[in-house]
Specification:
The complex is a heterodimer. By secondary structure, chain A is α+β, with helices and mostly antiparallel strands. Chain A has ten helices and four strands, in the order ααβαβααβαβαααα. Helices cover 72% and strands 8% of the residues of chain A. In chain A, α2 packs across α9 and α7 packs parallel to α10. The chains are: A alpha+beta, B alpha/beta.
Chain lengths: 290, 224
């Protein structure tokens, strides 16, 4: 095996441009693959976050008295579907607003507690309980607006589905493309090394001794593409972490878990072995007749 | 050592060899002579198991090689060394690497390879050219490299197909002397040629082929 690895290294070293081209194509495939996996995993996590925290928010009209609010709170507390009711005063709403926009002083100017409405946050056992509760609250004359995250969840479900379908299609296309590119490059090398193969056969090289370096070469291109795409994806995530954090702070999406990234690298390497092997084995079967 | 027993070979309707019966003992130096198309190369191809005879048996070291399974052919070929008219050296490898290839196939260690290749290259007197590529060699040096590659694995039989065909008389003679020396160590050499001068000078066994048939087999023969 060590001799086969040595032959593989020599083959790659002696045709560097083909090797670079193959690695670049594999990089593209795996970059699409890793992007798809990260998007799919992230949207899934955001979806789970919203699904695991069913919560509706009812905003009160200006001038709503404490007695009205208490009456609504008490009524909700009696409902078996409701797990928690939390009142957020105008001052607390201002504090939350300030905290979320602490890095943008322009947004903090001119904002006073009177602008922001007081509200109650209602948590339920199941997300399906939110809409009936919201419907009841909407009938209260002191309630200005009720927000249910159903819209967010359905938008996320639709986004996740789109990511899966479009990402899956792109990855499938690029996988087939990469297998064909590997097949073409290895096939070309087999033709280029006709004399060497002929001599090796005559001096008693076994068919596997001749075939294995070509197969390893395909796997090598796949692995280089996989590792480079993983490094690129990790770098991009790391660079945009502060930006992503402002949007999905509550979900704890970033900083990304290193174990998740290592798992992703493992999946990519396995996929690289499969794609590289498929391409090179196809080339060997088609072009290398020993 | 090598025995052809009523061997015939046809390519379609064309007969390349007809009823060849021939015995070659271990350590013999045999010239296969005859004009182009006489069947010399076909006979060598049958010995390397690149082709199968249409009829007849070929025994090498008492083993019928026509009955070898494909998986056993590589092992069999390790007993043979090959020398070609066009050298068949690998252009992208140095002299050293070309010769080392045989031992790499035999899965020798790097230390063994270094030792044996150095010994062989010194033997064929091209050790000083070890780092050169084939395009930087003269015809004689290239053929010496090919001979080194053929003998570095210590084969029992060396098959040479017109090894002096592309060489000038002086270089051809030096290559022949080298083959003669290799034969003196006990290696069987079967050499196809139509170089009269070479055959007549060395005075070894001569098997004459003509249109696929063996017309003459003489010890210390001549090629006329």
């Amino acid at each position: 095996m060590s001799r086969s690895i040595e032959f593989t290294k020599r083959n790659i070293r002696r045709s560097p441009f083909q090797a670079i081209a193959a690695c670049m194509v594999m990089f593209l495939t795996f970059f699409a693959f890793v992007t798809f996996l990260i998007l799919a995993a992230s949207s899934q996590k955001i979806l789970q976050f919203y699904e695991s925290k069913p919560q509706a928010i009812a905003f009160f009209k200006d001038g709503t008295t404490d007695a009205d609010i208490s009456a609504i709170q008490n009524a909700l507390a009696q409902d078996p579907r409701v797990t928690k009711v939390k009142f957020v005063s105008k001052d607390e709403a201002l504090n939350i607003y300030k905290d979320r926009n602490k890095n943008d002083p322009a947004l903090l100017e001119l904002v006073t507690p009177s602008i922001l409405p007081s509200s109650i946050e209602i948590s339920t056992i199941s997300p399906t309980d939110l809409q009936p509760i919201a419907d009841i609250l909407k009938q209260e004359p002191v309630v200005e607006e009720v927000r249910v995250p159903e819209d967010v969840v359905s938008a996320l479900v639709s986004f996740t589905k789109t990511v899966r379908v479009v990402g899956g299609a792109i990855v499938t296309f690029l996988t087939i493309f990469s297998i064909l590119i590997i097949l073409m490059i290895i096939g070309f090398k087999i033709r280029l090394k006709r004399d060497e193969i002929e001599i090796m056969r005559l001096i008693g090289a076994s068919p596997s001794f001749i075939r294995i370096p070509f197969i390893l070469e395909g796997i090598f291109y796949g692995m280089i593409g996989a590792v480079l795409s993983w490094i690129a994806a990790y770098t991009i995530i790391w660079y945009f972490t502060p930006f992503i954090d402002t949007y999905v702070n509550e979900v704890n999406l970033v900083p990304v878990n290193p174990l998740f990234m290592l798992g992703l690298l493992g999946i990519e390497i396995m996929a690289a072995i499969v794609i590289g092997s498929l391409g090179s084995i196809s080339a060997v079967r088609r072009y290398l007749h020993i | 050592m090598v025995s052809f027993d009523h061997v015939s070979k046809k390519y379609g309707t064309t007969s390349a060899l007809e009823d060849i019966t021939l015995e070659i003992k271990q350590g013999e130096f045999v010239f296969l002579v005859g004009p182009s198309g006489a069947g010399k190369s076909t006979l060598l191809r049958l010995l390397t198991r690149e082709a199968q005879p249409t009829t007849g048996k070929i025994l090498v070291a008492n083993k019928d090689i026509t009955k070898l399974k494909s998986s056993d052919i590589p092992q069999y070929r390790r007993k043979l060394g090959f020398i070609f008219q066009d050298f068949k050296l690998l252009d992208d490898r140095t002299v050293f690497e070309n010769v080392a290839l045989t031992l790499e196939v035999l899965d020798k260690t790097d230390a063994e390879i270094n030792k044996q290749v150095e010994h062989t290259l010194k033997l064929v007197e091209i050790w000083d050219k070890k780092d050169l590529f084939p395009r930087q060699l003269s015809g004689g040096e290239a053929q010496r490299t090919a001979i080194a590659r053929a003998i570095v694995g210590k084969p029992e039989i060396v098959l040479a197909d017109e090894p002096t065909g592309d060489l000038d008389p002086k270089t051809a003679w030096s290559v022949l002397q080298l083959l003669n020396e290799i034969n003196s160590w006990g290696t069987t050499i079967i050499m196809a040629t139509h170089n009269q001068e070479v055959v007549n000078t060395l005075k070894r066994r001569v098997v004459v082929l003509n249109k696929g048939s063996m017309t003459k087999d003489t010890k210390e023969g001549r090629y006329e």
